[in-house]
């Protein structure tokens, strides 16, 4: 008999190993259902959720069997993307919960100028606002753009998210903490998911992109809210947020490599991804850059470099044509 459990989860859910220990001591008649009550109430109220649990090994086998079946009906390009996606999901499930590093908020440049704490980390967000507005006005006013018009809302939301990053990230850097970081990550997730939708629509399949847009947005928003909630109850878990942020960054280069765009200036997407990776390098080298340069930190440069990415997208939209 499979150890399948319909569990009502309230607050913190206990681990699969703890659950299986409980199940091994359950009478057979009670094996079909087990109720878990967390130690901490949810911030958003007590919510009952039906969750299915399998052993991680069973889940892995099921996923890979599914992939073997799908390869029969799919070409190799689609299968490769599906394999990468499910491999990343399985890896996330196998990893232990990862709380936010307590030193994450300790930035190298904490100087106060003109009464603004962490001035350069705050001010370096301003380019996001202007680039976001430029892009949104372009999408709103230009009817002859080379875009997938059924995804016009995704293009628009991308630039809205870019503009909101200015306020969210600026607010966070005024007083870095998990509570303010929530408002930094929400608009960034809007931009990631919108951009990923555009890539899918331009390179793979327009209708699939339309169908995936809302689920991608909801998953992205949920990953940020779930992370924040998990921190407030003392069991921080970044895994889903990391998956939502980095899985598209792995899949997008594959999509650009395996598929052809319907528009010119496709090489700009490689430049955009390059800007993102370079920005990450500056973020990791925050203290090193500040020590080397003295007047600006790696994190401030990260903001400036990452703002180049949406500007490149804006330029591409202005210049490109259908293939």
| Total helical elements | 12
Radius of gyration: 22 Å
Number of domains: 2
Using the coordinates above, name the CATH class of the largest domain.
Answer: Mainly Alpha
Structural class by secondary-structure content: mainly alpha
Give the CA-based shape.
globular
Q: Low-confidence spans: pLDDT under 50, at least 5 residues?
A: 1-17, 27-54
Helical percent range? 55-70%
Structural features:
single chain; 323 residues; mainly alpha; Rhopdopsin 7-helix transmembrane proteins; 2 domains; three-stranded mixed β-sheet; globular
How would you concisely characterize the structure shown here?
The chain is mainly alpha-helical and 323 residues long. Helix content is 65%, strand content 4%. Strand 1, helix 1 and strand 2 (36-37) form a beta-alpha-beta unit.
